Amino acid sequence: MSKQPKYRQVADALRREIDNGTYPPGSRLPSESELSARFDASRNTVRSGLGLLVTQGLVTSSQGLGYEVAKHEVFELNASRFEDLSFPQIGDAYSTDVTNAGRRPHQTFRVEIRPAPEEVAARLKVEPGSRTVLRFCHRFVDDVPWSTQATYYPAWLADEAPRLAEPGDIEEGTTRYLAERGTEQVGYFDEISTRMPTPEEARALEVGAGVPVLLWMRTGYTVDRPIRCTITTFRGDLNRVNYEIGDQSGRENEPQ
Amino acid sequence: MSKQPKYRQVADALRREIDNGTYPPGSRLPSESELSARFDASRNTVRSGLGLLVTQGLVTSSQGLGYEVAKHEVFELNASRFEDLSFPQIGDAYSTDVTNAGRRPHQTFRVEIRPAPEEVAARLKVEPGSRTVLRFCHRFVDDVPWSTQATYYPAWLADEAPRLAEPGDIEEGTTRYLAERGTEQVGYFDEISTRMPTPEEARALEVGAGVPVLLWMRTGYTVDRPIRCTITTFRGDLNRVNYEIGDQSGRENEPQ
DNA sequence: TAGTGGTCTAGACCACCTC
DNA sequence: AGGTGGTCTAGACCACTAC
Questions:
Q1: Is residue B172 part of a domain?
Q2: pTM value surpassing 0.70
Q3: What's the domain count of chain B?
Q4: Containing domain of residue A29, as a range?
Q5: Domain boundary among B43, B69, B95
Q6: Phi, psi angle pair for A193, to nearest 5°
Q7: Is residue B249 situated within a structural domain?
Q8: How far is the C-alpha of A229 from the C-alpha of A218, rounded, in Å?
Q9: For testing contact with chain B, the best of A15, A53, A85, A251 (most B CBs within 10 A)
């Protein structure tokens, strides 16, 4: 066991105390100067240690207030059931899910005509930079920024289904609207990845350092071509994505 | 537009230069003292700025060498196809996938009898702390630590299928072995989340600060009960998890 | 040996919150 | 006003890498 630098000792000691309940979620840590005295270290060294905990997402800090132990309430998103048309629903799936969880949803919405970003163009099988309709959603739960969702539709589809490019919500859901016009999504391909937020994402989702984002990209297909690409960016500390695959009867049964 | 602190200006300037190709992936950044002169800032301030880029996973640093712009090669894991028995395969799915990608796989493996962690117990519908068989895998690609995978089996199943608790690989795959003994996995439930690594995970996966982990938890079921829970921890910068759901013919077609 | 990043200190001043 | 964290400096010494 080699000797750890002092700022790591500070971080490790505080992490232990957070884990064992000395500082429960939501509580305040001692101030920098108190910790400085306790660990016989300069304020800067203590700050380095606290900085580690912040970048690990364990605590948050705010000027004038102090350091607070982070709370973790995760919200589950069932991705495999999310847009199954055989589950009839009123309004969009997101509001339904959030309301069922006893939380208060809220979203802002806009529609733009935009050149296709490279990533999206490849998935929609169109030229990079070609015209797409972007329907963009910024979602909140109990007024906390939760996720952003950007769905791109290729120009040819927007011509066939003009309401896609009109501002304002599509009451029955876009998937259903498209299905009614003969463009039925029969399959999709999901890609899930994670990384630290860009400065823009950090602003949109109000995440501090130390909270990664969860990226969920869904490309939807008819029997012969892609019709949409949806990129959802979640706060990683508040969300989990689930898939149910195959027969689920063994999951719902009571333990014997 | 309010004035940014100097260390952010440093980070933003360097981030722009990384994005626009001035410092391509794999290249070295100027040294701290050079940057200190360029930005007319103290070395500590420059270090704060570089620290931001490190915690965002954009650059890595090493003592005596300097700062290097991170490379990103992501490896795709097809989760929906991963254990489908209708795709016959030799050896385990991981080695197959990695070899197909032209990379060199390598893994260490061990089996233990362990009390069920709370998370696992809930999913296996057994008492927390009750006996489980843990089959643990530490996986490398081209000698880079890639992921760890821990699969827990309940005690009752290990009694029925004794090879589960024996050390050493199961040649044909555990899923296939269990199916041959009459315990067929007919469905599974996947949960995907992300967070910053714990110190242990950081050590096992050799990730620096600024790289989140991607957690993939799969619970497998027979028609009437859970039979296993697999927790895979990936380096978030190197992996992506995919799902194919529904009819995929529209994905594989050529663009018209 | 020279140059790099890693750790640590002491002290200054500022911005924000609470009382 | 007094306490909190946020920014910044100047300088010291250590550890690692390259040559």
A1: yes
A2: yes
A3: 2
A4: 6-69
A5: B69
A6: -145, 175
A7: no
A8: 6
A9: A251
